[in-house]
């Protein structure tokens, strides 16, 4: 069981990075007016993000938190990235749910407005999630 728990942070990093890449690919498809592929990518991105959340909460429930070992400037950098990542990740959840809800209801004008806000945040959260993982587990 311990070995499985130890793999969860790496799995979470892969899931959140994958969700960001699929969201970016979905954006590229909608820019080319390829709605079916856009929808497929965005549903995949949302599924990976939800899977990440399950993995993250499972890890958090089953194991102690991992303390950051860095000191000095790198610690300040880590905390700044972690803080912005955490606040924006929490903000992102209702934005994505609202964007998905509007798209599924075919309210595309309002979907587009919220998606324009959500996508940059999603990409930032996915990228900084990877940075936080690397700094916490490999620095």
TrEMBL record:
Keyword Ribonucleoprotein part of the UniProt annotation: no
Matching Pfam families: DUF420
InterPro entries the UniProt entry points to: DUF420
UniProt-recorded name of the protein: DUF420 domain-containing protein
Keyword terms of this UniProt record: Membrane, Transmembrane, Transmembrane helix
Regions crossing the membrane: 12-30, 42-64, 76-101, 113-136
């Amino acid at each position: 069981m311990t070995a499985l728990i130890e793999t969860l942070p790496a799995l979470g990093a892969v899931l959140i990075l994958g969700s960001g890449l699929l969201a970016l690919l979905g954006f590229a498809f909608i820019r080319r007016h390829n709605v079916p592929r856009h929808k497929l990518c965005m549903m995949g991105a949302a599924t990976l993000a939800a899977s990440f959340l399950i993995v993250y909460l499972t890890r958090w429930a089953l194991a102690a938190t991992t303390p950051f070992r860095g000191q000095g400037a790198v610690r300040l950098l880590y905390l700044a990235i972690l803080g912005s990542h955490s606040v924006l990740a929490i903000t992102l959840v209702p934005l994505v749910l609202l964007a998905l809800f509007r798209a599924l209801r075919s309210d595309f004008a309002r979907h587009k407005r919220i998606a324009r806000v959500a996508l940059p945040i999603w990409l930032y959260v996915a990228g900084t999630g990877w940075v936080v993982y690397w700094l916490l587990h490999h620095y």
